[in-house]
Amino acid sequence: MKNQLPIIEVAELFTKSENLDLRIFDVRTGPDANTEYRKKHLGNSVFVDLNSDLAEIDDPKFGGRHPLPKFENFIKTIGKLGIDKDSHVVIYDDKNGANAAARFWWMLKAAGHQNVQVLNGGLQFAENQNYPLSSNDNSYPETKYISDYTDWQLPQVWIDNVRSASQDMDSVIVDVRESQRYQGITEPIDLVAGHIPNAKNYPFSDNLDENGLFKSPEVLKDLYSELFEKYDKSKIIFHCGSGVTACHSLLALDYAGFDIPNLYVGSWSEWSRNGI
């Protein structure tokens, strides 16, 4: 039985906005992300940088464009951001949770932090609902976060596992990129277009309705039920371009009541650079 939904509505966040244990984080991305944050963000939210806080970027050939940081480094980051064991963490971005909000959610869950949610609809929907905005540069008092674990607690696979899965009909590789990237018609980011052999396309955008909100758990359950009926969860691998947007679909799966399957963090950005 799940204790808490991974999605929080704007109206619910508003009722909790004065809670002392609430920690709100803005994880929008792009070259001007921090500048845009300083112009306008949800009241009391603190900016988190995908590239420096949620990844340790080196060579995309080894780990992809956004490899996870070392676990112990991420635990230090959690403390610097002002999160402790009792914190209720709410995360949003400017892409309906489809980008770094879901990645930060996955990382906190994988670090053992249970009280973490993504804001449904993100910044735009909150603004449309008249949630208070600010241009102040906020921060929370630093903590000493002590995890019960020494490594990530949610399932992952690496490139060798994916290579095996690409030739195993009992496995499935789920590519959440938009269909034109999956089909190799266009590739705006990585060096090579196409998809991993044995991959099926479930675009992350299908998790959302016409208003940019997550579809209901019942609708999402219908969308993904065939996957979980046909394949053992240990044989299901989700990936995207760089291990970020795939977390949006893992978030949707958790919202629908499924166990969270494997994440391939290296994703297409690593796979396509290895000549496989």
Topology:
Layout: E1 7-8, H1 10-16, E2 22-26, H2 33-39, E3 41-42, E4 46-47, H3 50-53, H4 71-80, E5 88-92, H5 100-110, E6 116-119, H6 122-128, E7 133-134, E8 156-157, H7 159-165, E9 172-175, H8 179-182, E10 199-201, H9 217-230, E11 236-239, H10 246-256, E12 262-264, H11 267-271
Parallel strand pairs: 1-6, 2-4, 2-5, 5-6, 8-12, 9-10, 9-11, 11-12
Antiparallel strand pairs: 3-7
What does this protein look like?
It holds the Pfam family Rhodanese. It comes from Epilithonimonas hungarica. The longest helix is centred in the last third of the chain and has 14 residues, at 217-230. The protein contains 11 helices and 12 strands. It starts with 6 loop residues before the first strand and ends in a 5-residue tail after the last helix. The protein is α/β, with parallel strands linked by helices and 276 residues long. It has 2 domains: 7-134, Rhodanese-like domain (Oxidized Rhodanese, domain 1, 3-Layer(aba) Sandwich), CATH 3.40.250.10; 156-274, Rhodanese-like domain (Oxidized Rhodanese, domain 1, 3-Layer(aba) Sandwich), CATH 3.40.250.10. Strand 11, helix 10 and strand 12 form a beta-alpha-beta unit.
